[in-house]
Amino acid sequence: MLGKNMARVSLVLLILVALGFFFATYNMLTLILHLRSQTSGKSEPSELFDPVITMPEELKKEKRKMPFHVALTATDAPYSKWQCRIMYYWYKKVKDLPGSEMGGFTRVLHSGRPDNLMNEIPTFVVDPLPSGLDRGYIVLNRPWAFVQWLQKAQIKEEVCSHGQCSYIMMAEPDHIFTKPLPNLAKGEYPAAFSFFYIKPAENEKIIRKFYPEEKGAITNVDPIGNSPVIILKSQLEKIAPTWMNVSLGMKDDPKADTAFGWVLEMYAYAVASALHGVKHILRKDFMIQPPWDLSSEKSFIIHYTYGCDYNLKGELTYGVIGEWRFDKRSYLRGPPPRNLSLPPPGVPESVVTLVKSVNDATANIPTWDDGK
To answer: pTM for this one?
Structure first.
């Protein structure tokens, strides 16, 4: 009789324990779902989420800024100058807005001599490659320019809690900042834009000449170029000389030169980074490229490398000069005029924003019509 009573008590206890675990688990799941709903929709997808204890708002506000120095390489050709002026205008316009971690700015001028924008844009003059070495591919001067600038310039951009950790953003003249840009890099992981036309796996035979199999998988070579990239200065100091050597090596290789064409130095940067074991955080929201990207709402930069051609119905006529067009190559010898005509109805917002941004800059840059 005593044994039966003990069995009944044990059964009751087991049921009570099971119920206790059930309710505890239910309450925990409810709390997690509640907290997740409160944190959904945050603008920073990389923010860490603790399902039980969230970071107090006051600590989030006290997060230390990690400014980065904006650097773009440029020539002294009129085509490069007007783009630099517009780029610098938009840098100044968004630099001090909430959410920005943009620090100083340098135009790294690889003409070997000062030009007439020295007083308008902070500029550091470096030498071009020796005559004939670029074989007409002037972009080969870009890695050599960064090597010189990093060696000679005093780039002081802030320290972080564990010591010196300056960041640099490599940019290009045909970039327009659409909103304040935070530091998208995370520690030793640089941030970069993923280009759909940089395909290391499809060009493995060529890339293996410069990134041999013993170095690692072909997937270690990111689908990126050097710009836009936000990276630690110490990392770039190591990568830049390798980037220069790989660029020259690829240019000397007929198969690489033919296969990579105008994006050769982009592939070279991707390979150089892999050789140094540097992997990048790929950010699709880093920038857009009209006319293929239709909206600028969620991006930080407009890269206007492609021509935008449309008929008056607002239909894209890429490859055929449109009834309405904006193409930076239309202004090789001098800047575009102020107050460009806006696209016809039906053209994507990204293209409209691009033209409005150009007009905003040209309307507010003094001496624009002087043809600098």
So the answer is: 0.81
